[in-house]
Amino acid sequence: MTTPTIELKPSANLVTDAERDRILAKPGFGRYFTDHMVTVKWTEGLGWHDAELVPYAPLSIDPANMTLHYAQTIFEGLKAYRQADGSVATFRPEENARRFQRSARRMAMPELPVETFLAAVDALVTQDSAWVPPTGEESLYLRPFMFATEVGVGVRPANEFLFMVIASPAGAYFSGGVKPVSVWLSEEYVRAAPGGTGEAKAGGNYASSLIAQAEATKHGCDQVVWLDAIERRWVEEMGTNNLFFVYGDRLMTPELSGSLLAGVTRDSVLRIAADLGYEVSEGRISVEEWRRGCQDGTITEVFACGTAAVITPVATIRSVGGGWTVGGGEPGEITMKLRKALLELQTGAAADAHGWMHRIV
Length: 361
Ligand SMILES: *Cc1c(COP(=O)(O)O)cnc(C)c1O
Description:
Elements: E1 7-8, H1 17-25, E2 36-43, E3 47-55, H2 66-70, E4 73-75, E5 78-82, E6 88-91, H3 93-106, H4 114-127, E7 139-148, E8 160-170, E9 181-186, H5 203-218, E10 223-227, E11 235-238, E12 241-247, E13 250-254, H6 264-275, E14 279-283, H7 287-296, E15 301-306, E16 310-319, E17 322-325, H8 333-346, E18 357-359
Parallel strand pairs: 1-3, 9-10, 9-16, 13-14
Antiparallel strand pairs: 2-3, 2-8, 4-7, 5-6, 5-7, 6-18, 7-8, 10-11, 11-12, 12-13, 12-15, 15-16, 16-17
Bound molecules: pyridoxal-5'-phosphate (PLP).
Pyridoxal-5'-phosphate binds near residues 263 and 266.
């Protein structure tokens, strides 16, 4: 496979320092985008070509663009953090690059070489490094994605694709202190089934999840918890986060059954928890076990993890059949300890024992 080098064609019209400062003072999540974007084309027979960093701008899309009709589109999400020493680094970006290849394979799309993925992210972060917030839990959220650009409405894999990376400054997820979430068990709608696309970060998975999230909101819950498609009994994940169950000093997370998304944060928590001396395992947990474990005190904490919010405590569970609370409904001690350990690693405040940080500038 060819690995094109990225040609830099920077903007002559940057956002002013004053405007950028105003945005960085209160960035929110996914609302503002930086000055540039990276684009790399793929054409059947030619492979990857025309890799460029260009000014951020709208695209012109043909009405018969195949993605608009059949959703051959995948994405990734990772963050660049300002390090304690002022440099900028991403967290385990090779894992995102490899997962992007797995998503592409499942969706009959071309696989982007890992080096090209990394080079694209690095080029954008380098060019727009002024957009990386100065401190702590704030970050520059990076959104690599790829979609079909062929024009036509025949149902088959497209012969042309565009890979892009855009970047958006992100505030601290819990700006007013970590707040546990309430979750709704989705028993009517499922996210993913065996043999389906649940393991891929494919756009369609998120389109089909929105109705369940709306149902969760209607029941006064922050997030939706997905159950397995067949028995609607085994717990899979929460929204776009993986789940962990804490039994005293033992942690368990649902195993990668084929329908779960294999989170980079999930993998990192498994390893950090083991480093801290906790027993960790991957397995299965049913809704009944979850409820009973909380009622008899064997389950002491539950948390969710993912790139966007890092680690989120889960406090209350609601379903058609009633609800229950985890512990006293407060963020758990182990949850908060892991959250701190992970964030210290990502922000360069703690030693990088695993070689997970990828320094860019
Ligand atoms: C992205 C995502 C996650 C979390 O993955 P990270 O790599 O940890 O960000 C979990 N579940 C779903 C459904 C996701 O889309």
